[in-house]
Amino acid sequence: MLLRRILFAAAFALAMGILPATAQEKLPVVASFSIIGDFVKNVGGDRVAIDLLVGPEGDAHVYQPSPADAKRLAAAKVVFINGFKFEGWMDRLIKASGTKANIIVATKGITPREKADEDGKDAKKGHSHEHAGVDPHAWQSIANAKIYAANIRDALIAADPAGKDTYEKNTADYLTKLTALETEIKEGVAKIPAERRKIITTHDAFGYFGAAYGFQFIAPQGVSTESEASARDVAKIIRQIKAQKIPAIFVENISDPRLMQRIAEETSAKIGGKVYSDSLSPAGGPASTYIDMMRNNIRQFSAALTS
After folding, report:
1. pLDDT tens-place string over residues 228-237
2. What is the pTM of this model?
3. Which of 3, 14, 109, 225 is deepest in the core (most CB within 10 A)?
4. What is the 3-state secondary structure (H, E, C) of 225-262?
């Protein structure tokens, strides 16, 4: 009789959504790449089971979905994507999977930056550039990261109403951490002389960071990130560095560093440490979470530009 009462009480608690998440079936969700996945992990906590399509160190720009990815989407209740045309392959994958999951665009409510083409001209004027004139790297602003978190919270509550209190608490805690992180970044930026806040990066992914924190990030002029640079390209970049007095070059984790190393040999620009733009590092690395990624990047910028 006692065992029957215990089982009945457990069944009632499960039905009411008051058992701990470890005793419940976790909500199956898919995140398109590692940064989105980290946001979902912080908001969802133990109530969600996250499946990443593009993992740490992966390049979502050139990712090629597999049949296994279609199965992942088919099994999910919620799929989180960045939007702003970042995952150019996602529409095809969604169609192929036949998924019934809710597709959540995590950038909802964020005003996108317009992106210049490789010659510094407005991409809307017909010049080719990845992402067709819209800069998708909105997570590089912490104010935007807070919007990602809120959108994810709302989507998880809609899919799992019983977890509402958990999702709201997790989000509030995470927003507090993001606020502290932004203070840390602003303090780091303030130590860098304004005239030295100019950086060349091998991939144009830091526009939102620059706009939010007073940096000028400059992509190599006339050089595609998708093809090997020619001798003419290198000469053009060297002239650009000298003309604009750019003090540092940074190599991101998704880019071939050899181009920047060749350029640095012929200029006084310093090659900074490794920074992360479109993906996190593996566990145990310097950027295994979004917060660690942003902290790593500002430390690398500061080290190169204040020395």
Report:
1. 567 777 788 8
2. 0.85
3. 225
4. CCCCCCHHHHHHHHHHHHHHCCCEEECECCCCCHHHHH
